[in-house]
Amino acid sequence: MEVGRERIYSAAELDAHEGALIEALRASSQQPVTDPDEWLQKELQRNVLVTSVDAVLNWSRRSSLWPVICFPACCAFEFIGASASRFDMSRFGMDILRGSPRQADLLITAGTLTWKMAPQVRRLYDQMAEPKWVIAMGACGITGGIFRDSYSVVPGYNRIVPVDVYVPGCPPRPETLLNGIEMLRQKINTRSIATEGE
Amino acid sequence: MQTLSFGEIAGLISAKYAPEAVAPFQGSLVVGGEHLLEVASYLRDTPQLDFDYLISVTAVDYRSHFEVVYHLTSLQHSHSLVLRVRCPQNKPLVPSLVSLWRGAELQEREIFDLMGVGFAGHPNLKRIFLWDGFKGHPLRKDYSSGT
Amino acid sequence: MALKTEPFVLNIGPLHPSTHGVFRLLATLDGEVVVDIEPIIGYLHRGIEKLAEGREYQKDIPLCDRLDYVAAMGHSMAYAMAVEKLLGISVPERAEYIRVIMVELQRIASHLLAVGSIANEMGTFFTPFMYMFREREKILDLFDMVCGQRLLYNYMRFGGVSHDLPEEFIPALKKFIDQMPGYIDEYDQLLAENEILLVRTKGIGVLPPELAVNCSVSGPTLRASGVARDIRRCDPYSIYDRFEFDIPTFTAGDCYDRYRQRIEEMRQSLRIIRQAVEQLPQGKVNSRVPIRVRPPQGDVFVHVEAPRGELGFYLVSDGSEKPYRFHVRAPSLINLTPLREMIIGWKLADAIVIFGSIDIIMGEIDR
Ligand code: SF4
Q1: What pLDDT is recorded for position A48?
Q2: What is the pLDDT of residue A113?
Q3: Min distance C39 CA to chain B CA atoms (Å)
Q4: By CA distance, what is C11's nearest residue in A?
Q5: For the domain C8-366, what is the CATH superfamily, name and number?
Q6: Contacts of B56 (CB under 8 A, 6+ apart)
Q7: What is the mean pLDDT of residues A1-24?
Q8: Which terminus of chain B has fewer Cβ atoms in its 10 Å neighbourhood, N or C?
């Protein structure tokens, strides 16, 4: 059916569209996003008695973090290593790596981020349902690491998405990653619905 | 199977082509851009030479000119050869070898993207690693990212 | 009468569980059948070549590790060999043996991952993968023992390796090479006659040898099509001419053969390691090369047999401390050339298997 063929975008159009997206994001992300820590402070100031609700909510949230698949580079293999037979991330209820961001609440950024990839990661983050968390894994995730000077590398995921926990290393060993996840769980534990949505 | 040394290969070539077209240089052959396709198909199709496998294509920016370097080998005779094609800085264009060796396809696109050397006759010559709208060709020596 | 359907474009990736990293495939489908594809890459282009040209030779070793992060040893070894060739220095005997042991262990680790993920892509969700990871962890432990890193080792140096093997390494390695053949047989038992694997891979995605050669395909993908080109044999480097091993080849060139090819290569690698351990001499592991090297002017091309194919380094030196040109002939990139011919005409589900059976690593493709 020829009608159908006409509706298909040409490769050149797609490329141009993608290029424009990348350039726009690049121009707007020259500064890091502030780490989402403010609510921690606020929570200390407030004193609303919703603790048992919080306890239940936080318990359920921290006990089944579902990470979304985001495997750009080398760190991915330590992430897979952490979830495979030996280190077995499922112990923490992080059973399933989700292929769809809509079913996930944790983004573990395992690898170098390039500007060409940045719009996709941004979209991935936008599509995840609240509440959501981000762990920046590896030197590349934190600052761009060994590739920081490059013309095509984003110097740190915090240019694109707010990062909750930074896990250093190049690559971080699975134990380090698990430690980072443990820290995130502690952080979730201090969260309160009284300050949510602000 | 009969492995030829570089001297023998160069002898065969210079018996057929004029020195302006092909000249030996440091264990490799420097080919004039306009003769490249002809020389390459001679190298590939002569049974005695039989260069059927293109190992690698790459380019170097020597500031005054670009040099595209081809590494060829023959699976049957297991001899290999390096070809160099030079093109001036202001007119970076060499003929594409995709019609002879498909293996050149992605590598020529890569050179076009990063080095800015064009390949005449390439079926799909556009940026491969960088995105549309990226300014400049990073592997050139005069490239600066502006940051 | 054949049912007419409207072709539509399906975008797969760049973040997709079955694309082995950040690879994007624009597939035009007619019903279930793929009628056209356009691979789009570059989502991991970190500019390694440019970065390497801005750093001293020694500082490029870590960058080479990060090219193919599943087979880092082989990549830094190839780079070290290229610089050694430029400098005209030789490597002590013991270091050569250590290098070979490391690289062959790495090949096994890499093929384990490849085989595991082929099975993964056919819907055997993670079960074979977990088996393979069990053994891969054992290899990573060996590496960890030697250089304190599990993935990117930074172990090769110009003129040898950074330091000698620790005492406990050889006994651990011997134990591993005694166990490993049993494990490989176990995989074969689980997979080779497995109905799912046979149905999904036999005769699927055939790569004819003429096309493979014309497209400069290399490594297991080429050999599974029946072309016995292995750099270890046809242009021996390091000390590979001292070992007895076969170059397994298969004839059909389909996904099943590419799977079996890797299983056989693991067995051959074990053979090489066993001989290397027996012959391992005592002595120095490094021929003291200064940290800042200034190779004489000239260019050099070195190629080795990496787990994914023929890996080449093309270096140009202008006599300074930094390489003037640093180019990598990346096997994964070039192996993608015939992807179109291999995929078109197959169903979408097969396309994923075919793509997986080539076994690519994005770090090497995009560099
Ligand atoms: S931090 Fe290191 S291991 Fe992780 S992606 Fe970056 S270079 Fe690779």
Answers
A1: 52
A2: 85
A3: 10
A4: A14
A5: Cytochrome-c3 Hydrogenase, chain B (1.10.645.10)
A6: B69, B70, B71, B107, C301, C312, C314, C327, C329
A7: 66
A8: C
So what's the pLDDT on residue A95?
65
User: What pTM did the predictor assign?
Assistant: 0.85
* Mean pLDDT, residues C153-181: 86
- Convert the pLDDT of each residue in B12-47 to its tens digit: 777 777 777 777 777 788 888 788 888 888 888 888
Residue-wise burial string across C265-278, b where 16 or more C-beta atoms lie within 10 A, e elsewhere: bbbbbbbbbbbbee
Classify A166 as helix, strand or coil: strand
Domain spans of chain A, in order of start? 66-189
Q: Check A115 against B127: CB less than 8 A apart.
A: no
Residues of C228-251 as b/e, b for ≥16 C-beta within 10 angstroms?
ebbbbeebebbebeebebeebbbe
**Domain B6-91: assigned CATH number:** 3.30.460.80
Q: How far apart are CA C34 and CA A7, in angstroms?
A: 18
The conformation of residue C122, written as its DSSP 8-state character, comes to T
Residue reference for tokens 């050099």: C300
In chain A, what is the greatest distance between 2 CA atoms, to the nearest angstrom?
66
CA C50/CA C39 separation, integer angstroms: 24
Chain A residues touching B131 at Cβ < 8 A: 15, 18-19, 22-23, 115-116
Q: Would you call A149 an interface residue with chain C, using a CB distance cutoff of 8 Å? A: yes
Rg (CA), chain A: 19
Run of H or E residues at A107: strand A106-110
Radius of gyration (C-alpha) of chain C in whole angstroms: 21
Domain boundaries, chain C: 8-366
Contact A15 B138 (CB under 8 A): no
Give the Å distances, CA to CA, from B135 to A98, B54, B112, C157, C334.
Answer: 36, 31, 13, 36, 26
Interacting residues of C202 by C-beta distance below 8 A, sequence separation 6+: C254, C255, C256
Whether residue C78 contacts residue C302, with contact meaning beta carbons closer than 8 Å, is answered with yes
pLDDT of residue A3: 40
Burial state string for B77-90 with b = 16 or more CB within 10 A and e = fewer than 16: bebbbbbbbbbeee
Q: Which of residues 103-122 of C touch B (CB under 8 A)?
A: none
Pocket of ligand 1 (CB under 6 A): A 73-75, 111-112, 138-140, 145-146, 170-171; C 66, 152
Distance of alpha carbon C17 from alpha carbon A68, whole angstroms: 10
Instruction: Determine contact, residues B54/B1, Cβ cutoff 8 Å.
Output: no
Helix pair angle (C348-358, C255-279), 10° resolution: 20
**Is B130 within 8 Å of A15 when comparing Cβ atoms?**
no
Nearest to A185 by CA among A133, A150, A137, A141: A133
Bond preceding residue C281 cis, omega within 30 of 0: no
The number of beta carbons lying within 10 Å of the beta carbon of residue C345 is 12
C-alpha dihedral sign at C187, C189, C194, C200: positive
Any idea where the domains of chain B sit in the sequence?
A: 6-91
Q: In Å, how far are A3, B7, C67, C125, C152 from C45, measured between CA atoms?
A: 37, 40, 10, 30, 18
Class of domain A66-189: alpha beta
Distances (CA, A) of B3 to B40, B52, C284: 18, 14, 37
Show Cβ contacts of residue C206 under 8 Å, excluding neighbours closer than 6 positions: C252, C253, C254, C342
